[in-house]
Structures are given as C-alpha cells and as structure tokens.
Design brief:
It is built from ten helices and six strands. With about 280 residues, the protein is of the alpha/beta class. The protein has one domain: Decaprenyl diphosphate synthase-like (Undecaprenyl pyrophosphate synthetase, 3-Layer(aba) Sandwich). The chain is globular and about 65 Å long.
C-alpha cells in the first residue's frame, strides 16, 4: 500500500521519500511548533512580518500533505499566551494574517473534509478574530476527515489550570446534588477536560529552527511523543522535510517505559535458562 494521491504530484525527491514510508506505522497525531519565521526574515534583511507571511505557505503544504496521508490529527502552534509580549504592530499583523488565512484557505480545508478546531483561550482574542474562528469551526464541524487543531492564544500550563478549574466546577455540581461520594480524578478525567479532549495524544512532535525545548506546548499530551527537531526554519519547511520526519519516526521503537522487543526477548530467554 502506497500513497497514490501524493505520488501524482511528488517530485523525484518526494517520490523517493514516499517509497520509504510504511502507511501502517504513520503517527495518528502530529504536533508542530512552527518556529523560525523571524529569523528567516532577518537573514534576508526583511521585516519580521515577512517571515510570518512566508510561513503560511509551509502551513498550507503541511496541512495538505497530512490530510492526504490520512493522518488523524494535526496540531499547529500558531500563537502562544507569551506572544502577547511582542510588539503591538507584529501582533496586529498576526491577527490580520490569521483572518486572511481563514478567508482564503477555509474553502480548501472544507473541500478536503478537514475539521478545524481551535485550542487555547480564543475568548481573549480580538472580537473580529473570534467571529472568524467561530464561523470556521462551525462550517467544518460536520467534516469527518483529519482534525486540524490550531493552538491559538495557547499555553500548556494555562490548559492544565483550565482543566483543573473545570474538574473542580464539576465536583461542586455533583456535590450540590449529594453524589460526590463516588467522584474520582484520574488521568482519564484530566484528559477529558483538556482543550484536546477527543483527540489522540500526539505520537510525533516536530520543532523547526533547531531550538531544543517544548515551549509550553501540549505539556500533558506529549508525555510519550517522539520528538523531532530540525534546523530548518519554518518558512523553508517543505513536504520533503515532513516526509523525512515521518521516516525518522517510523524507525524508532516506542517502548512507553517498557523494554524494547529485542531486550524483552533476551530477558525471556534468560528467565527460561534460569529455570533449568
């Protein structure tokens, strides 16, 4: 089984990479920290906003590729709570760029059966951005293909705070009804109250621009994610770069705290030998 839809539009390099992929081992959920827009612009002696605009092309290509690979979920880190510290002119441009992106790309997203979700605290965004975001989510709510989660006004610690507040509110409600005796909080309870409730945890976290940190992104969800860091700046990140990350992911053995299959075989053999 290969990827006929992608092979039709692939160049020679992409075709070679696609032939190395095993569709059965692809991640269910990819999360990406899209970093390096500002440095991309500075290296070209351009204003930082030029880097953000260039990064939209990379986002478009990655979204399309993941959808055609039948990835279940893709989460893009678009705007963090910490980003409010940037100059007002840059923030205003990012908000305009987001609205422009939704106007231009939403028809394509909808035609490709992608469901758009926004995770974070969108209620703190400018009212016109909130309206566009709400309209986009409502328009794609019935789509059954890939879920595209855009982390907007997002922070991983804030997400946990909001989840704990929601759990506490839920406890107060059941307590007022006199049914709090059986109330329990476990990992499943917390996951149900995260912004990403209903999505599988990311299998693969990609970070561009070479920075070796997770930047307050999906702190709970990436507990067992494979991390792939590339020096490539986000505006230069292409379909080929994404395919390289997926090939690297498929080569890894995910143990979730257990033994590798090879180590497990050796341990079992040793145990059998000790019973003689």
């Amino acid at each position: 089984m290969k990827f006929p839809d992608l092979l039709k539009t692939a160049n020679r390099e992409e075709t070679s990479l696609l032939e190395q992929l095993d569709p059965r081992r692809l991640p269910k959920h990819i999360a990406i920290i899209m970093d390096g827009n500002g440095r991309w612009a500075e290296r070209r002696h351009l204003p930082r906003v030029a880097g953000h605009r260039a990064g939209v092309k990379s986002a478009r290509e990655v979204i399309e590729t993941c959808a055609r690979l039948k990835i279940q979920a893709l989460t893009l880190y678009a705007f963090s709570l910490e980003n409010w510290r940037r100059p007002k002119a840059e923030i205003d441009f990012l908000m305009r760029l987001l609205r422009e992106y939704l106007r231009k790309e939403l028809p394509v997203i909808h035609r490709n059966n992608i469901r758009l979700l926004v995770i974070g605290r969108p209620e703190q965004l400018p009212s016109e951005v909130q309206r566009d975001v709400t309209r986009a989510m409502e328009q794609t709510a019935g789509n059954s293909g890939m879920k595209l989660a855009v982390a907007l006004n997002y922070g991983g610690r804030a997400e946990l705070v909001d989840a704990f507040k929601a759990i506490l509110e839920r406890y107060r409600r059941v307590q007022s009804n006199g049914s709090a005796a059986g109330f329990r909080v476990d990992e499943e309870t917390i996951a149900e109250h995260l912004y990403t409730a209903g999505l599988p945890d990311p299998d693969l976290l990609i970070r561009t621009s070479g920075e070796m940190r997770v930047s307050n992104f999906l702190l709970w969800q990436i507990a067992y994610a494979e991390i792939y860091v590339t020096e490539t700046l986000w505006p230069d990140f292409t379909r080929a770069h994404l395919l390289e990350a997926l090939i690297d992911f498929e080569k890894r053995e995910r143990r979730y705290g257990g033994l590798s299959s090879r180590a497990e075989e050796k341990s079992s053999a040793a145990a059998r030998g000790g019973r003689g």
